[in-house]
Every structure is written in C-alpha cells, then in structure tokens.
Predict the structure of Phosphoserine aminotransferase.
Amino acid sequence: MITLNKYNFSAGPAILPEAVLQTAQAEMLDYNGIGSSVMTMSHRSDAFISILYHAEQDLRQLLHIPDNYKILFMQGGASAQFNMVVMNLANGFKRVDSVVSGNWSRIAHSQMGKLSNAQIHLAAHGGDLYNYTDVPSPENWDVDPNSAFVHYCINETVHGLQYRNIPKPEGMPPIVCDMSSEILSRPINVADFGVIYAGAQKNIGPSGATIVIIREDLLERCSDRIPDVWNYQSHISRQGMYNTPATYPIYISGLVFRWLQAHGGVEQIQALNTMKAETLYAAIDSSNGFYINHVKQQARSHMNVIFHTPEKELDKMFVQQANAHGLCALQGYKSIGGMRASLYNAMPIQGVEALVNFMREFQRRYG
Ligand SMILES: *Cc1c(COP(=O)(O)O)cnc(C)c1O
C-alpha cells in the first residue's frame, strides 16, 4: 500500500478516501470478476443496474431519506439544477423566492429566471446585509408561503459560510437547497426539504454526477412541455435511465457511500468534521491577527475555511510553501484570494494538524 504523504485541500473536485481510490484501482480492469471495467460496461447491464441500485439505497440509508422522496443521479452539475428546479417546480406559479448568501446562491439567483415566467424574488441578500460575513437568518427571509419554493445554499463554498442552524420549513414554501459542498457532512432532516441537490465533486465523488433528492408530490408540477432530458419526472419514470447516466462517477460515489457507512455514517463523521473545523478556526483565532477570518462565529463553515494574512504577498508565499510541504490546493477562490482549506469528509484530522503546524511555523518566520 502506498500512502501519499500529501493532503489535498481543494474545494472541488476534491479529496476522496484513499481506500476508495484503491478499490477503484483494483477493480479498474475487471469489476467483480465479470471481465470488464465499470467504465466500459452498458448502463443497462445487470452489473451497472446493481451499482446504481446500491448507491441509491446506501445514500437513502446514510441520510435517512423517507420513502416519499425520490433520488436521481443526474448530469450538468449543481449549475444545471439552478434552472431545472425552476423549470420543473415553478410551472404555473407567479413567484420563486431566492436567498442570496454567497457566491453560489448569487449565481443561482441570476440564472433561475431564465426560461421562466415566474418572478425570482430576492428574499434576502447576505452581501448587502453583512458583506458576506454572516448568513441571512430565516426570520428575515421575505418569503411567501404561496411561492413555488424558496431556494437557498446551505454551505457557501467560496465565502466559507454555512447555515449552522438549518432553517425550518414552518411558514415557508417548499425549501429547495443547494447542498453541494456539505451533503453527508452532518445529519439533516430530509423531510424539511422539498428538493435537495448536490454536485458530487465536493463531498461525494468525482465530477459528473449530481444528486437530486425530491419529494414525490412535487413531481406533479413537472409539465410535459419540459424536454425529457430536463424533466425530473421523465428521469424518475425510467428509473434514472432516461439517457446514459454518468456511470463511472456513480460507481465511485457508491464506493464513497460504503466507506462512509464503514466509518459510522453521517453521525460519526459529523463529530470528526466539527473537531477538524474547530482545530483550524482555533489556530486562526489564536494567531494575534496574523491569520484573519471575518465570518461570524455562528456562520463559520465547517467544510470550507477561508483565511488570509495581512498581506497579499504573504498569502502567495503561504500557498507556495504549504504546497512544497505537501499541503496542496490552499489558494482561495479566484475573486477572493487568500487561502481556503476545504475539510470535506475524506480529509483526515492529521491533514488539519499538519496545516495548523505549518501555519505556526510560517507565522514564526514571517509574522
Ligand atoms: C461547486 C458548487 C456549485 C457548482 O457546481 P457545478 O457542478 O460546477 O455546476 C454550485 N453550488 C455550490 C454550493 C458549489 O459548491
């Protein structure tokens, strides 16, 4: 067994459990003794149908997804869902409510109105309110229970913001949530949501698969006029096989689900995720202002931790030298700069400890 002496802090496509990659490597040429790679088998073969079935069942078990919710593994990324949720769920409605709490929900907000007659109503804007140092509290969302739905992003990957307290559905229209960068990182009550979607490449698997979890009754809103490839109901009626699904990413996602089950599931991984995030934030907060994170305590993401030093030049040196120490992909998002450490499920606590040690050493030298 080769253990790579490197830690990958990329925001996405992101770190995957080494054990999963080793299984994939071992099965690359011959899956399960059938003499073919998962990559080269028909999506309608018994072997792949079984892979898809078990991936769905394992996800259902991990998130305790109730029976009245359907699961799809789609393509097009979370970005395609910005429009699909409107096309499928807002038909015949006048209004969609949209909460902007950071980069991704801002982009969603800008896209959702395309190809729709519904008004995309800005229910709250975390940039205007707090300059993205906090998330707009649900009490301050201007939503109408008669809207088609309210859309928000539970973890803002770029701004390092997370709804630590998950909004409750009382008084809300159905809640549609972008969970791309935190799904499976902590327990959620699926019944609080109308639709949950997530691109796989943050906390699940490789890019190419997008998870959509949808409450059954909402499928009645999907109009026949929506082209089948964009229509949730068409995909569900054909057991996720309307067209060729992203077979290999689904296979890897399935291996990740099994890995997570073997590690005690979402409840266990949450404890580890909390410890990792608290370790890193404590290092930032105890640096006497050398490392800075402006996010309010109650909205600090446990998945994507952003920070910077007092100088852009130092940030650049930090990223370069960290990389030379095997602490990879720490550069912040292109429009924000600084550093970003993504601490997804597959990041071991040793990675965070190595980062914190490096931060101390860097500060001792340049602080
Ligand atoms: C990465 C990301 C997206 C965009 O995902 P794509 O798969 O590139 O479309 C959307 N929302 C969130 C929260 C993300 O982290």
